[in-house]
Design brief:
Length: 496
């Protein structure tokens, strides 16, 4: 047996023993003490984090790491459905959250060491933040959380818990960087503050166990992006993140959406601006303007307005533009670039869908227009001519906000807007053609299943449920974005 194989086997044994030992310890504490399930779960969370942190020191091959993580993923599934290790599974959540942990461990290892060829601290700090900050936030929030805010329906965070996440992440990032990176103190402090603030905002929207994925990769993104910047640039990034947080507080206070929805929206804006600059953020600002117009022209009661753009809806609508922005390697050649065109198409499609929904709401302020544009018979073939102008106007807003480039003339804006609104209307119509009538309990608007104008899942009295499957509003958002982006990129590549 070769020395390398023995080394890998011992590494797997040591790492697995630490992780499994922490899970068994959590189960023993769950059975023998009065500690809550959340506390015992975080014991296994921290122990598993220590095991993952030691992987690069004990294992050299990415294949071995994959085998180790796959084995623990299988163990998580088996113990979840068999009722074992309740100290970890007993919080009443699905198996998805614990499965993110081994997936994150392998992906982080492969990305940092095999793709980025980055130093060890780029791997260690994200894992450390995941193991400590997330656990501390959960424990503090459960024990001392008094000031709660809504992320999505029935999912809340507390200001105390979020403060604990920020403080722990700040200490972890600053402490590790001070020992492993020869940065000036002011740079180190600004990087630590910005990273901790960004991670706290990501943790806020990490529901259903997604914190095991978003927190470490968000930490890696901030470290990788912020480390090369000068002091002036770092101050600008920190101010931008602080402005995003302020926007979340102010807009959530006005109750036009959930905190989770606004964090998703403003974090997406930050990523687009930080990676793409003015050429990318200006059309994105146009999308925000479209949303503001929608809220102004179609108001509903404060208790229901926030349901329109909750976390899931915002994430579905913004996933494609943000992924395109992250995939764009060089931001200097945006004019005519296929990815930039796809980015514009996705934003315009979002805006077209938002304006398409305007006349479907009973609260639409222009009643005569509503009677002209709204669909009276939900089973009539669509799209119809009456529904084209508003989506066209919506799609044109983000396109008109960009600094030159693709839509060089108003005619081009109109043509592209028509094309994108056609895509949006087609996808919505095709997705909901066979659905039954339902009534939105927030504003009384009659809509198709999954397309409630206020995104409230509770059907009103007398409403009928759909008899056939139809796509939800969020699935429609995501599909329309993808179709528009791929179509626009394909056209540009074909023309070039």
């Amino acid at each position: 047996m070769s020395t390398t194989l023995v080394h890998e086997a011992l590494g797997v044994g040591y790492t697995g023993a630490i992780a499994l030992g922490s899970m068994i310890l959590a189960d023993v504490l769950h059975r023998t003490t009065s500690l809550s399930n959340e506390v015992t779960r975080k014991v296994s969370h921290i122990g598993s984090g220590i095991a993952v942190l030691l992987i690069p020191a004990l294992i050299d091959s990415a294949i071995t790491v994959f085998v180790l993580c796959a084995g623990f993923a299988v163990l998580m599934v088996v113990t979840h459905f068999s009722g074992l290790l309740q100290g970890m599974h007993g919080v009443g959540r699905g198996v998805g959250g614990v499965l993110w942990y081994p997936l994150t461990a392998f992906t982080m290892y492969a990305l940092v060491f095999n793709v980025m060829h980055a130093p060890f601290y780029m791997y260690a700090i994200p894992i450390l933040v995941l193991a400590t900050a997330d656990a501390m936030g959960a424990v503090v929030g459960k024990r001392w959380g008094r000031h709660r805010y809504e992320v999505i329906g029935d999912h809340f965070r507390s200001i105390e818990g979020s403060t604990a996440v920020f403080t722990t992440a700040l200490i972890g990032v600053a402490g590790w960087l001070s020992f492993t990176n020869q940065l000036p103190f002011i740079n180190l402090l600004l990087i630590s503050l910005a990273t901790a603030l960004g991670v706290t905002m990501l943790e806020t929207v990490s529901v259903y166990g997604l914190d095991n994925f978003l927190v470490p990769f968000g930490t890696l993104f901030f470290l990788h992006f912020l480390s090369p910047l000068s002091v002036v640039e770092l101050i600008g990034q920190f101010v931008l993140l602080a402005a995003c947080l302020t926007g979340v507080v102010l807009i959530s206070w006005k109750k036009c959406t959930t905190a989770g929805g606004m964090v998703s929206l403003l974090m997406a804006a930050y990523v687009v601006w930080a990676t793409g600059g003015d050429a990318w953020i200006m059309p994105f600002t146009g999308l925000l303007l479209t949303f503001a117009i929608y809220e102004r022209l179609s108001p509903v009661a404060d208790t229901h307005t926030k349901n329109r753009y909750a976390l899931g809806t915002a994430a579905s609508g913004l996933a494609v533009p943000v992924l395109i922005a992250l995939a764009h390697d060089t931001m200097k050649s945006w004019n005519g670039d296929a990815l930039y065109t796809a980015f514009l198409a996705a934003l315009a499609c979002d805006a077209a869908i938002i304006f398409f929904m305007l006349p479907q709401n009973r609260s639409f302020v222009f009643k005569r227009l509503r009677r002209s544009f709204a669909t009276r018979d939900l089973f009539q073939p669509a799209p119809t001519l009456g529904k084209v102008p508003l989506p066209t106007v919506g799609a044109a807003i983000p396109l008109a906000c960009q600094p030159g480039g693709l839509p060089a003339t108003p005619t081009t804006v109109l043509v592209l807007g028509l094309a994108l609104s056609g895509v949006a209307v087609f996808v919505i119509s095709a997705a909901t053609l066979r659905s039954s009538h339902v009534m939105c309990p927030a504003c009384g608007g009659v809509n198709l299943r999954g397309l409630y104008c206020c995104q409230d899942k509770r059907l009103g009295e007398g409403a009928t449920r759909a008899t056939a499957y139809s796509m939800s509003f969020r699935e429609t958002f995501l599909m329309a974005n993808t179709v528009a982006a791929l179509a626009a990129a394909g056209v540009v590549i074909w023309l070039l």
